[in-house]
Task: structure prediction
Amino acid sequence: MQERKLNRVLAGETVFPPPIWLMRQAGRYLPEYRETRAKAGGFLDLCYNPDLATEVTLQPIRRFGFDAAILFSDILVIPDALRRNVRFVQGEGPQMDPIAPHEIGGLDPTNADTHLAPVIATVARLRAELPAETALIGFCGAPWTVATYMIAGHGTPDQAPARRFAYAHPEAMDELLALLAEMSVEYLIRQLQAGADCVQIFDSWAGVLDELSFHRFSIAPTRRIVERVRAAVPGVRIIGFPKGAGPLLPAYRTGTGVDAVGLDWSVPFSFAAELQTTGPVQGNLDPLRLIAGGHALDEGIDAILEHLGAGPLVFNLGHGITPDAPIAHVERLVERVRQG
Ligand code: CP3
Result:
């Protein structure tokens, strides 16, 4: 079989029309997801149930025929494996026990392999059940982004608790990020060995860091993951998504060594096109254009294809799809991208 379209682009090839998938493509905007989710009980129960996690991963592939499926799980299964009492409270987002600097030395990753085994089982099931042409994406959260939730104990608008922690206790922060990087390496290697075609590292909160902190807390731990995963799985393709990194994107690409860089919707086309001369990019439609539909959607799609379609591009949103996205608009998006 020819290499899957997504992997061809991640290897630097220009494929037009570009392959398309959407961050959070399995989710609450789909009635079939809501139904399976209700059967599972809690959100984490869904993540650790290979039958149901496989089912929700496949739902958007059946409906829209995306070029890639993304493993259904969450970045917060890592703190869950560290027994931080992670819970998803309906309507309130994720919560866990906030960690203090003196507790970091006591974090114990020894049980993580066993804890995460159901997620790896899901990957194997998915590769067996997906259409041959559909790529399978594994993922983890970047250490910085995972740490922001571990420190605050919940989501915040600007991750001030983690930034305060980093300035007041930089060594403790380095230690926490090193542990998370180590665990992520093992986790990604196992996903790749179970059948993932590539992996994405979500650094959703990279954009709150100043330049010094961005190098130390986002780039450095991500580079460690990239180097170690590459050493274990030669030729692996890795997408990095440092949301909000803006002018630091070129430094992120060079510093981490990722193959492709995910762009949020605030990245200007000229900047994105320049970055694309150094390697593949992924993005970057504003998820709210998908909500609006009509002209707002069409002009957003067309502009991305026009400015970035002549180089290696993976079409995606600039962040996750929201629960209020109309299904008809997602259908329109896929159709229009495929028309080129
Ligand atoms: O379809 C996919 O993209 C794969 C599955 C996936 C989920 N979360 C499922 C999910 C992926 C790749 C993630 C990544 C993730 N999780 C990130 C990074 C990407 C981003 O969006 O910034 C982050 C920061 C998280 C942490 C997280 N998980 C938050 C903040 C929330 C609550 C927000 C919300 O939308 O409710 C979650 C819950 C979550 N993860 C849901 C899904 C489908 C919704 C939970 C539900 O069904 O009740």
In short: The chain has a mean pLDDT of 97. The pocket of coproporphyrinogen III is lined by residues 23-28, 37, 43, 70, 72, 74-76, 88, 93-94, 139, 155, 202, 204, 320 (CB under 6 Å). The longest helix spans residues 170-194. The two ends are 24 Å apart (CA to CA).
